[in-house]
Amino acid sequence: xxxxxxxxxxxxxxxxxxxxxxxxxxxxxxxxxxxxxxxxxxxxxxxxxxxxxxxxxxxxxxxxxxxxxxxxxxxxxxxxxxxxxxxxxxxxxxxxxxxxxxxxxxxxxxxxxxxxxx
Length: 118
Hints:
This protein has 118 residues and is mostly beta strands. The chain has one domain (23-117). The chain is built from two helices and seven strands. A seven-stranded mixed sheet has the order 1-2-5-6-7-4-3. A hairpin with a 4-residue loop joins strand 1 (22-24) and strand 2. It is globular and about 40 Å long. The model has no long low-confidence stretch (mean pLDDT 95).
């Protein structure tokens, strides 16, 4: 499955192609579609640790569009497992470092569950 196919199926979009790993669902939540396979991509290595998702920057020079982000929440999608939805995660600003280690803590199993709570 491609990112475009995932977005079209789950959000009713009509993309023929969608390369970016993020898609804006709302001003505070983005859909984040990445691989969790231990490989480094664009200087980042992503891992799942219990109810947390951790982004480790292990590269030498960060791409400008990876230096910051605006969302508080992410619907995390594991492309390694056929675009499996892992849940909604909130950025843990207190325990993260924006440029080297970003921690996201699970707050809901699904977007539907998350929307009920807000």
